[in-house]
Amino acid sequence: MDQFTLNLLFVGASFALYIGIAIWARAGSTSEFYAAGRGVHPVTNGMATAADWMSAASFISMAGLIAFTGYDNSSFLMGWTGGYVLLALLLAPYLRKFGKFTVSEFIGDRFYSSTARMVAVICLLVASITYVIGQMQGVGIAFGRFLEIDAFWGLLIGACVVFAYAVFGGMKGVTYTQVAQYCVLITAYTIPAVFISLQLTGNPIPALGLFGSTESGEPLLAKLNQIVTDLGFAEYTAAHGSTINMVLFTLSLMIGTAGLPHVIMRFFTVPRVSDARWSAGWTLVFIALLYLTAPAVGAMARLNISELMWPNGTSGEAVSVEQIETDPEYAWMATWQKTGLLGWEDKNGDGKIQYYNDQNADLQAKAAENGWEGNELTNFNRDILVLANPEIASLPGWVIGLVAAGGLAAALSTAAGLLLAISSAVSHDLLKGQLTPNMSEKSELLAARVSMAAAIVVAVLLGLNPPGFAAQTVALAFGLAAASIFPALMMGIFSTRINNVGAVAGMLAGLVVTLLYIFLHKGWFFIPDTNSFTDDNPLLGPIKSTSFGAIGAAVNFAVAYFVSGMTKETPQEIKDLVESVRIPRGAGVAVEGH
Amino acid sequence: MSQSNDTNAYWSANVRLILISLAIWALVSFGFGIILRPLLAGIAVGGTDLGFWFAQQGSIIVFLILIFFYAWRMNKLDREHGVDEE
Known about the structure:
Protein name (chain A): Cation acetate symporter
Number of strands of chain B: 2
Largest sheet of chain A: 2 strands, antiparallel
CATH topology of the largest domain in chain A: Sodium/glucose cotransporter
Number of strands of chain A: 2
Distance between the termini of chain A: 56 Å
CATH superfamily of the largest domain in chain A: Sodium/glucose cotransporter
Number of domains of chain B: 1
CATH architecture of the largest domain in chain A: Up-down Bundle
Order of helices and strands of chain A: HHHHHHHHHHHHHHHHEHEHHHHHHH
CATH class of the largest domain in chain A: Mainly Alpha
Transmembrane segments (chain A): 6-25, 77-95, 116-134, 146-167, 179-200, 246-268, 280-301, 398-426, 446-464, 470-494, 501-520, 540-563
Largest sheet of chain B: 2 strands, antiparallel
Helix content of chain B: over 70%
Mean pLDDT of chain B: 90
Radius of gyration of chain B: 18 Å
Number of helices of chain A: 24
Subcellular location (chain A): Membrane
Strand content of chain B: under 5%
Membrane topology (chain A): Multi-pass membrane protein
Family (chain A): Belongs to the sodium:solute symporter (SSF) (TC 2.A.21) family.
Number of helices of chain B: 2
Oligomer: heterodimer
């Protein structure tokens, strides 16, 4: 059986499994969409939340970004897990006690203002749409690879599948489908990592293998440092970027994680306040299984690729074009070339492909000596690394098929979940809640479908010229959530002083400054070449656009504080509401808002 | 009145616990993983140093412990102050 058929088989079988479970679980219970989490054990709920949360950014993109940058991109690892500490300590139990279903409802009630609710919906929409762009990139790459077509067509086909998947709808609500998706996703991520860790270090646990030793007794990371510096690249384990930027980037990802509505929503529906605390912990357990493996995947893949391109280091011979075209060990390069995400060019016509850092002075000298004319591995999209990893390590065909299924599970479940969040925000919160309260159920449903279709068209258009690699695009979405939603929620619980005007002013200020900073660096509305600055040379010192969310959040806190101080005090009944949210006693089941 | 005093005591105990937990949260990630990494450079771990381990794995493990510790401690606090869900 060839690889193409095998991939199709794995992807098809996993989809059949999700649909099967959805139908089976649906027949068993007719409980409404939102109530899916109620009565579900915190462990099961944690697994489902982990599947919902881990998207194309975590599965497909993150390890590749770590692989090619090394230590500096540890921010993704700390940021996307550390946010759960904030969520568990500062938000989850109180929002569960509050007992409504959506984030914007809490903000609307706590700040006794329908304007506050509307502003929250707008913040939520901006962050979610940016997030969907990143997911669509991942979907495009995964479909491009497994159908062996250009990533552009992969994106279009993927968009149709996501749309169908989201319209089918109920799937997202069914916790057990997500449990199945988690199992597929984590198996697909771990199995190739175990194989590769065994090959390189003899340790079956990748997280330990990363700090283990190679066959020769040399530590893996020391060997990797030596190999990448030989090619003129920066040392893998050393810090190169600005410390301030790294701190702010990590903080933005953390705060953003705790401000993402589709994650927070999961904690509204657990049976009790104490379960909300446990559930956050279990979610992080299941996320950590992937996140502890990811840095090992990155480092080991970087080692394998470098050794494939230079089997004996730069003092030996580079791999020949002929070998790339004929040797089965290099077959992955030809398959990925078809997606347009990997490319090489024999610039000096010596029949070999020299891969090195042609910006490095030492390597330039070496190149002049040996007649190299620049780096010949001309294109290596970071987002392909995880999907290509099993092929790079020459693992069996079924592992490659499994990884394709896992990548699609991650990207599709999150993309569909976000589309549902966007459509319900537009139809339920914005139209029905604010603009046209008398809207019929039928037109609400139609509005939901139309906004879903509109969101996906926008995401595809912007996904064709994305503002960065998938995980970087998603990081921008986190920055926006960090600057707008999280501060409003936290102040709503921990301070009785912040009033309606203060909260609205804070959210708007945080959102606007962050959006401006992002657009200045990534182009207005992400349209290429409309930017005035780049992340290599940012407007404010070392602060890149992906790191600005933390500053946006600080602006939000400060503006809300000062404006509240200058305007009318919070009424007594709202102070009582805050008091009651703070203690678990008297928490009923969550109820549907108006 | 005693009810209200007890609620206040509960809330300040909670805030204290949150502050301690967040101090540890910041220390392992922003501290050991990033800012204080040069100070830990002397401690070798598998071909690199302790700061690198904290940045890529250690902080995640500490985050897990923190969340479970907080959940356990708070559930106990709920009962001690009589504000649990019965």
